[in-house]
Write a structure and sequence with these properties.
Order of helices and strands: HHHH
Strand content: under 5%
Structural class: mainly alpha
Shape: flat
Distance between the termini: 61 Å
């Protein structure tokens, strides 16, 4: 489809091309599927996460990326569980919550 880049009221300018009726039009809205994601973990990874299979047996399959992801996640969560807030932090949070409730 051709458009006149230099638009003006001058009739001598090149006419705009009419849209081709056979051309595919782009939809105004895009449909998004609702439901579970298409990608799922393999049965071997599920078995490993449930403690029913060894890590070595899962790594032999094509699930090595999934194993690495879950091991990193487990390590990150273990580090977070080991962290403790400073003394009095929980009391300050609860006091702030009570103050907000009292204002209502």
């Amino acid at each position: 489809m051709l458009d006149d880049v230099h638009s003006s009221d001058d009739q001598s300018a090149a006419p705009r091309a009419t849209p081709d009726p056979d051309a595919r039009s782009v939809p105004a809205e895009r449909e998004v599927p609702i439901g579970p994601p298409a990608l799922t973990l393999s049965e071997a990874v599920h078995a490993w996460l449930d403690g029913e299979a060894t890590e070595a047996s899962v790594r032999r399959e094509q699930s090595q990326g999934d194993v690495e992801f879950w091991k990193r996640l487990d390590g990150d969560l273990a580090r977070r569980r080991a962290q403790h807030p400073r003394a009095g932090f929980a009391a300050r949070v609860m006091a702030a919550i009570r103050a907000v409730d009292d204002e209502r």
